[in-house]
Write a structure and sequence with these properties.
The structure is a single chain. The chain is α+β, with helices and mostly antiparallel strands. It has one domain. 27% of the residues lie in helices and 21% in strands. The chain is built from three helices and 14 strands. The strands form four sheets. A five-stranded mixed beta sheet has the order 8-7-10-13-14, with no helix packed on it. Strand 7 and strand 8 form a beta hairpin. It is elongated, with a radius of gyration of 22 Å. It starts with 7 loop residues before the first helix and ends with a strand.
Length: 240
């Protein structure tokens, strides 16, 4: 009885076909995973948008994005919205919902830590800062709430000329001396803290004040309040 066996040539051809198929399929699988992470990011932002809406109902339509007055006084948007994770009254929000799944959380840091999260603007817009259009159109919608005007921001949504244009949260990145590139809770006018992170096909996912999510690019970063951005892990200054 004749046995069916592979010749060496047939085996090499089979291996070559498998290699070709892998070369074709692996980039597609990688792209699909990236799209899935971007979709999860948008879902997280929308969850935080609902939390902002609840906060606004309890605070006369104000949202707290950042606050700083003196050493030890810092409060992030997440701490205002959910309470501090290590203090009584914390609502128990899962840390994953406050950050983009495409950026690794610092190893060894509590998953609910409220520094390595989506970024929010941390300065009162003026004619001389990034996002000057907001000052021109909606100047009375912003206050530092008694904190530093260059490190604090409270927004009254009902006073915005267009809530659909004002960014509440966005993909962020900072090169941290201890942990490397991580998400960061605040964007400052001088770009010294977090930068807009264009990690989703050269775009950043953004939650706007009316609750919808959209994207920003390097071309419209500055006009929307971001003086710096990361593209392909390289930090650049936004153009006016």
């Amino acid at each position: 009885m004749k046995k069916n066996t592979f010749t060496l040539i047939e085996l090499l051809v089979t291996i070559a076909i498998i290699a070709i198929l892998a070369a074709i399929l692996l980039p597609a699988l990688g792209s699909a995973r990236a799209r899935a992470r971007s979709s999860a990011c948008v879902s997280n932002l929308k969850q935080n948008g609902m939390a902002f809406a609840i906060y606004q109902m309890n605070h006369n339509d104000w949202s707290a994005l950042n606050y700083y007055k003196a050493a030890g006084s810092t409060r992030t948007w997440s701490e205002f919205t959910f309470g501090k994770y290590n203090e009584p009254g914390y609502t128990g929000v899962l840390g994953e919902s406050t950050r983009c799944p495409s950026v690794a959380h610092p190893e060894g840091v509590h998953q609910n830590h409220q520094q390595y999260i989506y970024g929010a603007l941390g300065f009162v817009p003026t004619k001389d800062t990034p996002g000057s259009k907001f000052a021109a159109k909606s100047g009375n919608a912003f206050t530092a709430g008694g904190g530093s005007a260059t490190a604090s921001l409270f927004v009254r949504t009902s006073k915005l000329a267009s809530a659909a244009e004002f960014p509440m949260l966005a993909d962020s990145l900072r090169d941290d001396a201890k942990y490397g590139k991580v998400q960061h809770y605040i964007f400052k006018a001088d770009g010294s803290q977090g930068a807009l992170n264009l990690l989703h096909s050269n775009r950043a996912n953004v939650l706007f004040a009316d609750g919808h999510c959209g994207t920003l690019t390097k071309d419209n970063a500055y006009e929307n309040g971001y003086s710096t951005y990361y593209l392909d892990d390289v930090k650049e200054n936004s153009t006016k």
